[in-house]
Design goal:
A: MetI-like fold, 28 helices, B: 377 residues, Rossmann fold, 5-stranded antiparallel sheet
Chain lengths: 584, 377
């Protein structure tokens, strides 16, 4: 009997894969963040104080200004998350379970809302509400709203609008999977419409909890709104307090580390609760036999009224701030409305490419940001796919559960914490002299941005990966395909749409990312978000608005180009995944 | 030398299979325990067993999707799995029809069927004509441009069958391919599988938990239980000489009768004489494992029982509990007393519920087995 060429046992491949994955996670997230957090209790570890171990920093952090910042953060994040889930549930129900007009349009609008960073939204609102700006020009008395905007109300509003799309898409998946048979079963067994709803809602409880956990984590870790709104609002929130602790003189890294730890730990309860409720199952698929949903039919008048309500709401959360930014960008006066009226001009657009002294023109930073976006999105998608494949694996071992929890927790690590962690770890003399000197280089910024995007994208991709039945790739293997060809010809086409959207989301988020970019950018190669930030709050604010508008248009342009290419390049079969099945 | 068969103009070499002491353990649970089998080239073998018996695991080990924990698998005398490693599925020259069809939803029917031909040295036109011929053979030539989700379950499984036969491999595996289909489509596709696979000349291994499907398809049947191969033989052998009570029960019994006493009447022909409580003495075949004075149960195949109006001398009195029309006749459930019932008792005429009847028994389809031996899981 002869011997075929036998491959090495699978467990070697598995172990090698596990070691590589954990090594990447260690270098990208665990060690840098761990080093920074360690400073909170061991300042001497990095030469920032005399003690090897102390509780005094923790005690001092929980007093006065820093304590208020943390409490404020918890309050506004909880409120924003609750509001986001409530509004998202309503929107998801209206779009997926009723005959609302323009359902595709509202879902697309949610995508746009997700792409707009909080600092852009905030600046847009300031351009609307500030005395002398758009609201004044329209004759609205906005002073009362303006004062409220620079306080907890404004912060909660912006954070809610930022968290809304995440909640909406998560709850939408639950709503779509919630076939009408559950409601029918309740009704035929005597339940009233209200009781049937009470019976059915717990089925999407995992999706609601997921939405809450992610909304809370996003709000806690948000830096854009803290930086643009919290600073002038006399309402400090934790990320801004953390930023102040680092960028004040002298910098107080131990306090910043304790705040960072609080930010991360604060997300543990909702994340734990969510994972307990999920118990490893996906909220994406309730049943393979779920019937299609039955839409609630509004009467014509009610339909028109509800659609108008949704339109007004979406205009408020998306249209108005964008209008504010756009109108502001077409003026170059100190305020939109001057004593002689509104002076429309393209000056700001000219000046953004021919910058005033001491400012940077948009061209270079925009190019840098696009390069960053390209590299970060591509790197993130590759790593996230590997992680998603491991998370979706049928064998549910301890290592898999640990990675799952770790990635869930990592979603909540604020960008600013990652950025500072990178400086702490990769600027250590041992690293710079004996391993590699990455300080103030583009690769370090790329690593930081990948580290920031990977946990969220891995979680997002786990759903689509888990939905691919293993028999599809097994069928390819037994019909002669190698491991690589099996993946390329069966899994990749089925995941292509999810991969494209994950890439686009990471690309756009990278371009608009502010916290890590501000800390890690290479001098002379600043990303566009940092450039825009330098204009704001100066007499050249309208140039900042013009830069904001151009950046947003460029991001939307890339999305349109990529989606068009996807449509043109990919075979028809790739684009029709998920279409309805003809019943046998 | 393995036989060669001419199918669609190509020579197909059927594979011989040797499975030697193969075991598989999943997280401490034994799914397969020291299974050994030799399958002749071109044979059609059905592995029969209930859920959890290990038949799927054995098939997946054969396919190379699972790695055996111990033992050796050889295809055409080439070791493809041993403690030294495994050869990947793509290196085993086999194909498979999956229970859930496993058609790639992004490929058309034609593209699905052509997939295994990617590595073959065929011209594009030869490839297309082969695909067209196969689709014609499985009766879906008009569906080539469609996508899987535009087909019914039966049509999808026909595509899976065409795909499995397209590469002219030496071994075709079937993982309960009919279990998701309704009765009418099951029968049609069973015939297609039986004829087309045999025409292809490939060795076939088919798993199912349905004994009628197994007997209809197989040259040989292997019965598995709790990860062990309990019996391997022709369908006739399995039915007429079940190795134990489990095999007898799993391949169909009308009922089990409690035995008051028994004795061996003919050692050479393995016959026993059985005394039932309050009933005449019956003859039966002696089952494996019977020892003197051990408690025993009489297992009765449906074919062993005939039904009469009048109580005859050697008949046993019973009461009809239920009657079901099957088209070609009637199947009855007959109670012998309060605790013993015989089902699937066939007669061409109808016996009404509650009527008193006489049952006669055929010695060739009754087996006396030790009472302690296994029951169905």
């Amino acid at each position: 009997m002869t011997q075929s060429r036998l491959s090495r046992p699978d467990h070697w491949r598995t172990r090698l894969g596990s070691v590589t994955v954990w090594l990447v996670l260690l270098l990208l997230i665990i060690v840098p963040v761990g080093c920074f957090l360690a400073v909170g209790v061991s300042p001497k570890l990095f030469g920032l104080g005399p003690q090897w171990w102390t509780w005094s920093t923790i005690r001092s952090t929980f007093t006065g200004y820093t304590r208020k910042g943390m409490v404020d953060s918890l309050l506004v994040s909880s409120s924003s998350a609750v509001l986001a889930v409530a509004v998202a549930t309503t929107m998801a129900w209206l779009v997926h379970r009723t005959n609302l007009w323009g359902r595709r349009f509202w879902s697309a609008a949610m995508w746009v809302l997700m792409l707009v960073p909080t600092w852009m939204t905030t600046l847009g609102w300031i351009d609307v509400l500030q005395p002398g700006e758009l609201a004044t020009a329209l004759g609205w008395h906005s002073l009362f709203l303006y004062h409220h905007f620079f306080g907890p109300d404004g912060i909660i509003f912006v954070l809610t609008t930022a968290a809304l799309p995440f909640s909406y898409f998560i709850i939408s998946v639950g709503m779509r999977g919630l076939g009408s048979e559950f409601e029918d079963a309740a009704r035929v067994h005597g339940a009233s419409r209200a009781r049937a709803l009470r019976t059915v809602l717990p089925i999407i409880a995992p999706a609601l909890l997921s939405a809450f956990a992610i909304s809370f984590a996003e709000s806690m870790s948000d830096f854009g709104v803290a930086f643009t709104l919290g600073s002038g609002a006399h309402f400090p929130i934790a990320t801004y307090v953390l930023f102040n602790a680092i960028y004040s003189f002298p910098a107080n890294f131990p306090v910043a580390a304790v705040i960072a730890a609080v930010l991360i730990l604060s997300t543990v309860p909702p994340v734990y609760l969510q994972s307990r409720v999920m118990r490893g199952r996906s909220y994406a698929v309730l049943s393979g036999r779920t019937r299609g949903v039955r839409r609630h039919q509004f009467t014509p008048w009610a339909r028109a009224g509800v659609t108008a309500g949704v339109a007004v709401f979406m205009f408020l959360v998306l249209g108005l701030p964008l209008t504010g930014a756009v109108t502001s960008s077409f003026t170059n006066t100190a305020s939109f409305l001057t004593p002689t009226g509104v002076h429309w001009t393209l000056d700001s657009y000219r000046q953004i490419f021919n910058a005033p002294p001491a400012f940077t023109a948009l061209g270079g930073p925009l190019l840098t940001s696009n390069e960053l976006g390209l590299l970060v999105a591509s790197g993130t998608v590759v790593i996230a796919l590997v992680l998603a494949k491991r998370l979706a694996s049928r064998t549910s071992g301890a290592a898999q559960r640990i990675m799952d929890s770790f990635l869930l927790g990592s979603v909540a690590i604020p960008g600013i914490v990652l950025g500072i962690g990178y400086i702490f770890f990769y600027d250590q003399r041992f690293i710079t002299q004996h391993v590699v000197d990455l300080y103030e280089t583009l690769p370090l910024l790329i690593m930081g941005l990948i580290a920031s995007a990977t946990p969220g994208q891995a979680r997002l991709l786990t759903g689509p990966v888990a939905q691919i039945q293993s028999s599809l790739s097994e069928a390819a293997r037994v019909h002669g395909a190698s491991r690589w060809r099996a993946w390329r010809t069966t899994s990749l086409p089925l995941l292509s749409r999810a991969i494209v959207w994950a890439w686009l989301l990471t690309f756009t988020k990278t371009i608009s990312e502010l916290a890590i970019a501000q800390i890690l950018y290479q001098p002379g190669h600043e990303p566009v978000s940092v450039t825009i930030e330098t204009y704001l709050g100066t007499i050249f604010a309208t140039i900042g608005s013009a830069a904001t508008v151009l950046t947003l248009v460029e991001m939307l342009g890339v999305i349109v180009i990529v989606l068009t290419l996807f449509r043109l390049v990919t075979p028809r079969g790739w684009r029709r995944i998920g279409e309805s099945v003809v019943p046998s | 030398m393995a036989p060669h068969w001419r199918v669609g103009g190509a020579l197909v070499s059927a594979s011989s299979i040797r499975i030697d002491q193969v075991s598989k353990v999943f997280a401490g649970k034994t799914a397969l325990e020291s299974v050994s089998l030799d399958l002749a080239p071109g044979s059609f073998t059905v592995l029969l067993g209930p859920s959890g018996s290990g038949k799927t695991t054995l098939l997946r080990c054969l396919a190379g999707i699972e790695r055996p924990s111990a033992g050796t698998i050889a295809i055409n005398d080439v070791v493809v799995a041993s403690d030294r490693g495994v050869a990947g599925p793509e290196k085993r020259n086999l194909s498979m029809v999956f229970q859930d069809y496993a058609l790639w939803p992004h490929l058309t029917v034609q593209q699905n069927v052509a997939y295994p031909l990617a590595g073959a040295s065929l011209s594009k036109s030869a490839r297309q004509s082969r695909v067209a011929m196969l689709l014609e053979q499985v009766g879906i030539a008009h569906l080539g441009e469609r996508y899987p989700n535009e087909l019914s379950g039966g049509e999808q499984q026909r595509v899976a069958l065409a795909r499995a036969l397209s590469a002219e491999v030496g071994l075709v595996l079937f993982d309960e391919p009919l279990s998701n289909l309704d009765a009418d489509r099951r029968e049609q596709l069973r015939i297609a599988i039986a004829t087309l696979t045999r025409e292809s000349g490939a060795t076939a291994v088919y798993i199912t938990h349905d004994q009628s499907e197994a007997f209809a398809l197989a040259d040989n049947v292997g019965v598995l239980r709790h990860g062990r191969l309990v019996q391997f033989g022709s369908p006739e052998t399995i039915y007429q000489r079940p190795a134990d009570a489990f095999v007898a029960r799993f391949t169909g019994v009308a009922g089990e009768l409690p035995v008051a006493s028994w004795s061996v009447s003919n050692v050479e022909s393995a016959r026993v004489v059985v005394a039932l409580a309050g009933a005449p003495v019956l003859s039966a075949i002696m089952g494996v494992g019977l020892t003197p004075n051990c408690r025993a149960t009489l297992l009765v195949r449906p074919a062993a029982v005939s039904i009469e109006h009048e109580l005859s001398e050697n008949g046993i009195r019973g009461t009809v509990r239920d009657t079901a029309f099957t088209g070609r006749g009637y199947e009855h459930v007959v109670a012998l007393h309060d605790t013993v019932e015989l089902s699937k008792v066939f007669a061409t005429e109808r016996y009404d519920r509650g009527s008193i009847v006489s049952l006669r028994f055929d010695v060739h389809a009754m087996f006396l087995m030790p009472t302690t031996e296994g029951s169905l899981p």
